[in-house]
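Exercise 7. Predict the joint structure of the components listed below.
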Amino acid sequence: MTLSSTGPAARNRTSAPAGNGSDGNHSSVVLGPRDRLVGLLYVEGDLRVVGTVEGELEVTGSVEIDDGGRVTGPVTAHDRLVVGRAGSLKGDVRVARLVVQDGATFIGNVSMGKAALDAPPKPVEAVKPVEAVKPAKAVEPVEAAKLQEAVTTPEPVKAVQPVKPVPPIQATKQADRKTQPPDRKRR
Amino acid sequence: MDVQEAVAESSHVASADDNGDGKRDGQRKFTMGPNDVLEGKLVYDGHVHVDGRAEGEFRVTGNLDVASGATAKILIEAANVTVKGVVEGSVAARDKLTLGKNARLSGDIVVRRLQIDDGASLNGHVRMGDFEQHGSGG
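Solution:
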C-alpha cells in the first residue's frame, strides 16, 4: 500500500481525532492510538505517530513517535525525528536531526547529515518493488511446466526397453516345448 | 581491579586519589585534561573523564564522559556514557548513553537506555536491550 499526503486519500486514511490537515503544501498528519498503517507513507509536512506503523515512512518535515507509538520500518525525515520516551522505533533511520528521549526504544542504523538524505530516492521507487513481485508469479508456471516435462520424459525411457523382445524368443522356444506335449496328448 | 594497561603522554592525567578531586559515588575518578593524550588500553575501576585526545580501548566499571572539545577514537565500555565531544568507535553502555547537543558519534552502540539531545550527530547502528560485553575482557 502506498499513501501520499498530497492526495485526498491520505487524509481520509487517518482517523485521528485532531491534528490532521494541510496548509497549502505543508501537511500535518497524525496517526492516532487506534490507527494502523501497513505500507508506505510519504508526507510533505510533519507526521506524528501515536499508533502503529509497519512499513516505510518518508517525511519532508519532522516525525514524532510518542505516547505508545510504534514504528517498524525505515524512517526518513528531512528535518527532525523525535522518538519520545513512550515511543518505539525499529528500523533504519536517515535524518537531518535526531532526538531520542530517555525511555524510548530504538534499534536500527542511523545515518545523519545531508549526504544521507540526498542519496535516497522518493516513494516512486517504492512502486518498483511492487512490479518486481509480478514477475515472481510468472516464474511459478514456468516451474510447473518443467514439472510436466519431467513427468513426460520418463515415458520414452520405458519405450527404450523394447530390447526385451529378445527374451520372448527364449520364451517361445520354451513355450513350443511346453505346448507341444499337451497338443500331442490332446491329439 | 586497577589500571592494568595505559600509555599516557601527559603531565596532567591523574586519578582523584592523587589530585584530591574527591571520590564520586565512593569511586575513584580518572581525569584527563584538555591537553592530555592517552593511547592504549585502559581498564579502570571507577569513573573516567576523557578530555584532550584519546585512542584505544576504555573499559570502566563506573561512568565515562567525553568532554566537549575532546576527540576520541576508542572502544568504550562503561555503566553510563556521556558524550559531548567527538567519538569514533563503538560504545557499550551497561545502563545509559547520552549524546549532548554538540556530540558527534560515529560507531555502533549497544545500550540499555539512550538519550540523544537535539543537535547531536550519530552515524552507526543502535541496539537497545540486553547488554553483551565486547569480546576481549582485558
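Discussion. Chain A touches chain B at residues 80, 97-113, 116 (CB under 8 Å).
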